[in-house]
Every structure is written in structure tokens, then in C-alpha cells.
Amino acid sequence: MAVQTFLFASLIFFSSSIESNHGATEVSLFTNLENSLEVTAKPTRVGVVVLEAGKDMVRITWMLKSSAKVNDDASFKTVEVKLCYAPISQVDRPWRKTHNELSRDRSCPHKIVSKPYDKIPQSLNWTIDRETPTGTYFVRVYGIGVNGQEVAYGQSSDAEKTTNLFSVEGISGRHTSLDIASICFSVFSFGTLLVFLVKEKRKANLQQRK
Amino acid sequence: MASNEEGSIGTSMHGVTAREQVYSFSVDASSQTLQSDDPTAKFGLPVDSEHRAKVFKPLSFAKPHMRAFHLGWISFFTCFISTFAAAPLVPIIRDNLDLTKTDVGNAGVASVSGAIFSRLAMGAVCDLLGARYGTAFSLMLTAPTVFSMSFVTGPVGYLAVRFMIGFCLATFVSCQYWTSVMFNGKIIGLVNGCAGGWGDMGGGVTQLLMPMVFQVIRLAGATPFMAWRIAFFIPGFLQVVVGVLVLTLGQDLPDGNLSTLQKSGQVSKDKFSKVFWFAVKNYRTWILFVLYGFSMGIELTINNVISGYFFDRFNLKLQTAGIVAASFGMANFFARPFGGYASDLAARLFGMRGRLWILWIFQTVGALFCIWLGRASSLPIAILAMMLFSVGTQAACGALFGVAPFVSRRSLGLISGLTGAGGNFGSGLTQLLFFSTSKFSTADGLSLMGAMAALCTVPVAFIHFPQWGSMFLRPSSDGERSKEEYYYSSEWTEEEKRQGLHEGSIKFAENSRSERSRKVALADFPTPETGTPTHV
């Protein structure tokens, strides 16, 4: 009982020292960001409906919008390119919910790359990560300021996230070796039970005859 | 008794030493000493007239009582690990199989629904074939379903496999049945509480074990979507190993294995239809069904949703959420035995009425803390609420199985089965109502579930035993109906009583006098030892 009390107390202590997101003095909101980047994301294989994770490539480009004011990009030093879920992949999946508070937003969990910002247009041929789940996506680029917070963004889709989306098919995670091992273990389980039943029945019949 | 000529005058030794147990109904001298040809009938612990152990030594492995206890709870523990193995890995699985919240919720419902039927079947299997086979079937026939997680590719397959794995929760019934036939009524609350609690711990251990195994497999080089499938081989393999141990080391009854005893005529085979009828006819069975649905039922639901809840709401890492979720299940180690012990203690002071009050108090307190858990918005408060909730609910489970063995002697297995099934039914119902739709957030679902549980605990006030009373009513004052023998022999027809088939129930009735409150027990029946001299 003493051990359990100690474990319980240490759990409470441990959990109260887990950081909650009260560290930032100012909360970064998506609606406060400037849409000053122009981003495109196009699959390299032409005429393909569903891309394969780990195999297909997407060509991503980003640059300052021509309509932006001259010094708009002075504030950001690095860019973060992220893979985001389209609304159709968020339906009935509250763990992918979009949130205005960027620290609580779960719609862009997959980081593609983080690069220092040159003032020139940049591009990247990205092979879709093998661990990318099945879904429909678009690409968003955040401009990160000196203090590590987002100041601007751009995305390959429109504001409603309905255009220029691409679908990815994740890997299945299955393998023939697994299937075979599974069947072998199952047969072993059944077989052992059967052997015991037969043995015991024989023993009981022998006893009865005695 | 080789030279026994039944019935001839002068051969019966009954009554010579004046230390023999005196029964209200006359019994044959030959049936008194159950000497079995089975060489396993030797006892390492003090036993009562039914050869059930009178003391509980958790650290011992004495044949057959303590061995049955350990094999029973370990089987049940393993099955809990398998049934809830998916829960801590859901964040990975939902991405691999492209599941929605509805898919995840439905699979959770399915994981506990299969056991509704298998627990009923197990009750009958135990009554008719013995606890050993029941346990072994459950473990070894469901192990292939655990391995078959490697074949799953979408929500339908996932649901089907979780449904089939869930069948193994029937080991709960065989475990409780096994301990109920091996241990005396005075300590049955504590023993059942330990067996049930340590088994239920599996639901907590799995939340720690599976993420750890997953991590190790990932470090070995597998992708996440393959690693979780490989991780499932661990619980499957454990099931096979424990199944073999049960078959080789276990024994059905204190005097031997059921088939041996049945063949030598010492234990009569009962008819399933009779066993079933007397279980179903007894209204107390159904009240226990509902009660267990809202103690064990909500515990099973929490095992499925709590890890994901902490992962999503408080942004914890997979392993951290697993640790927090595990604490819920691990509390079973002391909480459920504590419930059983409290029930036994209450019985010593107030008899069965004390047991019923303890049950109501624990279950209601647990439900109230569940409501608080849903309301908590900071992590430390949520953990505190969760721990208090776990202790209350799990103690209630232990207390309930301090009452269940007394509801019937003839249909003990089936009643354990029906009550156990109630647990799963409650879990399926609460998951379906509160955690399978996007209508409520998980937090609101938790609070609503707690409110429903508090409400559905009220029926315990209606459980009444004529010989012992109920929460608000005294025992019957009628001379006939206030005897334990009347209650337990009413499960047998006159014809069966004439054949003497009810003798086991009479012995049980004698031993169950302990459920009278202390005041009443001291008032009547001086024990033979004090009443008569040792020498004639």
C-alpha cells in the first residue's frame, strides 16, 4: 500500500511539472499572419490520381508574392514547409482539427523541411515520406521570425483548401513474413490444445477401465 | 472405505467422536468422506467440509488451492492485455488504417461486446466441464485472433479482429468460478477481489507494455505501420504459454479434476437447462448484471478511451499518455482486493447487509469522481480525479463479487457468467452512447458516463435475501424462510431432493451462516465442539 501511495504522489508531482503552453508571452494566431508567400506543390508524375508514400515526388516551390510590399520578408529568417490535411481528411477526426491558435493547431503535423530564407524563389523535389498516412493534402509554408514564431505563411491551395490538393496512399504496413509467422503461431496454439485434450481423454478412459 | 457394507447396523462410524459436522438433513455416511482415487487430493492449507481453503496465502503455490488462484488470475491478466492492446497504439493504428473517430469508437464497442456471449457460455462450460478447460479454451482459441492483426488493412478488419479478441475476456468467469470453488465463503470477498483485481491490472499494464514494445521494434528498424502489428505477437504468445501452464498445472476442484470425479460418481453431472433456469429466474442476477455494467463496464470503457484522451486533450507523448492511462488500470492491484476485503469485513460485522451497503458506497463514489474527471481541465487535477475514480470503481467490482457467490449455489458458474456479461454490456453501451460520435467531446462523454453510473447503482437497494435482509429491510422473521438451507435448497425440485442431489447446496448453506450479522449469529446454534464432551 505504501508503494502505491508513493507512486501516486510522484505521478501528481510529475504531472504538475509537465510544461503546459503558458510559456509564450504572446499567443500566435493564424489569422494574424500575413499571406505573403506564393506556394505551389505539384506531383512530378503527370496524370496520377493517387501518389504513393515513399515512392512518388512532389515539386514544391515558394517565393514572395509579387503583390507583397518590398520589406514584407525582412522579418523572417527561416521557412518551414509543412504537409497539411485537406478538410476531407479532417472529417470525423478530431485529432486533426484546425485551430486558430497555432500552438494548438493539429492540421499540419508533418514537417517537410526547414530552411533559412533566401530572398530568391526556392524549390524542392520532395519524396513523400514513407510514414505519411493515407489522406488528401496540400502544402503550407510558414515564415519564421527571429523569436521562433510564425509571422507569415503561404499555401498551395486556396483559402477554403479546396483546390490543388493531392492524395497520398500510405504504406500498408503488412508483410508476407508477418503473415506466415501469424499462421504458424495460430496453428501451434490450436494444435497444442488439441494434443492436451486427446491425451487427457485417453487418461480418463484408462482410469475408468481400472 | 474398502470394507463398507452400506446400511448394516454397527458399521457406520458417524457420530462416534462427536466432532462430526451435524447437518439439518440426514446424509449418507459414505458420501461424507470424499476420498478420491485421484492422487492429487492432498491439501496444503486448512479446509472446510467442502475441502475449500479457509485461509488465503497469496505468496504460496500450494496445490490445489493457491495454484488455482495464481493460474486463474494470470490467465485473466493475459487476456486483459490482449483485449486492450490496441488502445494505447490507436494514434498509430488510426493513421495506418485511415480510421475515423466513429471507426475507433465502434471497434472499442466491438472489443467488449464479444465477451457478452462468451462470458455466458463460459458460465455453462465451468458448471459442466470445469474451470481448467474453460480457461484453456478461452486462452488458446483466441490466441490466433491476436496474431491475425497482421492481416488487417481497414476499419472493417480492425473491428472484426478486436471483436474476436474480445471473446477471451470470458476467462474472467472461469477465474472467479475457480476461486469460488476453491476458497471458503468467509474469505471469498478478498480472494475474488485479488484474483479479479490482479487480472484487471492487465488493462493497465498493456497501456505501458504496448508502447514500450512498439518503441523497441521501431528502434530495431521497422516502420511504425509494421511495428504495431509485430507488437501484437507478444500478447498472443503470452496467451499460448499461460494456456499450457493451466492445462498442465491446474486442477478443477479441491478433490481432483471434474471429469475424474464425475466418472467415479462423486460429483453428479447437472443439467444445463436446470442450471440456466435457476440463474435466469433469480431477479438478483439481473440487478448484479446492471450493477457490474456500471462498475466494470465503465472500467473497460476507460481502458479503451483514456490513453487517447490524455494524448489528444493534454498533448502528451504516446508513452507519457500510456503511463498515465496505465495508472488507472494498475490501481486494481490494491483497489479491487480492498473492495473484497471491505466486503468481508462488513459481512463479519453486519452480515450480507453490510456487503450491500459497501457495494453501493464504493460504486457511487467512483461514479462521482468520474464526473469530476470529465470536468477537469488541468492535467494534475485530471490525474487526481482519475485515480480516485479508479479506486472507487474497482473497489466496487471487488465488493460485488463478495455478494455474487451467495446468490446461488447450483448456478454459480452461470451467475458469474451473466454478471460478467453485464460488465461487458455496460461497457459496450457506454462506448456506443458517449464515445463513438462527434456529438460530445470525450470530456463531456466521461462526465455523462459518470452520471449514468451513479443512477444505475441505485438498484442495489432492491437486492433482498430472506435469510439475511437487504440494505433497508431486515431478514424474514418466518421460521422456515429465514434459514439458509431453505434458500439454497429451493433451487432443487422435490424429486431431485429425494435423490439427494442437493447435498452440495446444503453443505454450502451451512458454511454460509457467516453472512448473518454478528448479533444474530451469536444468538443461536452453539457449535458441536462446545456443546458435547470429547469422550463419550
UniProtKB/TrEMBL annotation, chain B:
<feature type="transmembrane region" description="Helical">
    <location>
        <begin position="226"/>
        <end position="249"/>
    </location>
</feature>
<feature type="transmembrane region" description="Helical">
    <location>
        <begin position="381"/>
        <end position="407"/>
    </location>
</feature>
<dbReference type="InterPro" id="IPR044772">
    <property type="entry name" value="NO3_transporter"/>
</dbReference>
<feature type="transmembrane region" description="Helical">
    <location>
        <begin position="71"/>
        <end position="93"/>
    </location>
</feature>
<feature type="transmembrane region" description="Helical">
    <location>
        <begin position="105"/>
        <end position="126"/>
    </location>
</feature>
<dbReference type="Pfam" id="PF07690">
    <property type="entry name" value="MFS_1"/>
</dbReference>
<feature type="transmembrane region" description="Helical">
    <location>
        <begin position="286"/>
        <end position="306"/>
    </location>
</feature>
<protein>
    <recommendedName>
        <fullName>Major facilitator superfamily (MFS) profile domain-containing protein</fullName>
    </recommendedName>
</protein>
<dbReference type="InterPro" id="IPR011701">
    <property type="entry name" value="MFS"/>
</dbReference>
<keyword id="KW-0534">Nitrate assimilation</keyword>
<dbReference type="InterPro" id="IPR036259">
    <property type="entry name" value="MFS_trans_sf"/>
</dbReference>
<keyword id="KW-1133">Transmembrane helix</keyword>
<feature type="transmembrane region" description="Helical">
    <location>
        <begin position="159"/>
        <end position="178"/>
    </location>
</feature>
<dbReference type="InterPro" id="IPR020846">
    <property type="entry name" value="MFS_dom"/>
</dbReference>
<feature type="transmembrane region" description="Helical">
    <location>
        <begin position="318"/>
        <end position="335"/>
    </location>
</feature>
<comment type="similarity">
    <text>Belongs to the major facilitator superfamily. Nitrate/nitrite porter (TC 2.A.1.8) family.</text>
</comment>
<keyword id="KW-0812">Transmembrane</keyword>
<feature type="region of interest" description="Disordered">
    <location>
        <begin position="496"/>
        <end position="536"/>
    </location>
</feature>
<feature type="transmembrane region" description="Helical">
    <location>
        <begin position="356"/>
        <end position="375"/>
    </location>
</feature>
<feature type="domain" description="Major facilitator superfamily (MFS) profile">
    <location>
        <begin position="68"/>
        <end position="462"/>
    </location>
</feature>
<feature type="transmembrane region" description="Helical">
    <location>
        <begin position="446"/>
        <end position="465"/>
    </location>
</feature>
<feature type="transmembrane region" description="Helical">
    <location>
        <begin position="414"/>
        <end position="434"/>
    </location>
</feature>
<feature type="transmembrane region" description="Helical">
    <location>
        <begin position="133"/>
        <end position="153"/>
    </location>
</feature>
<feature type="compositionally biased region" description="Basic and acidic residues">
    <location>
        <begin position="496"/>
        <end position="518"/>
    </location>
</feature>
<feature type="transmembrane region" description="Helical">
    <location>
        <begin position="190"/>
        <end position="214"/>
    </location>
</feature>
<keyword id="KW-0472">Membrane</keyword>
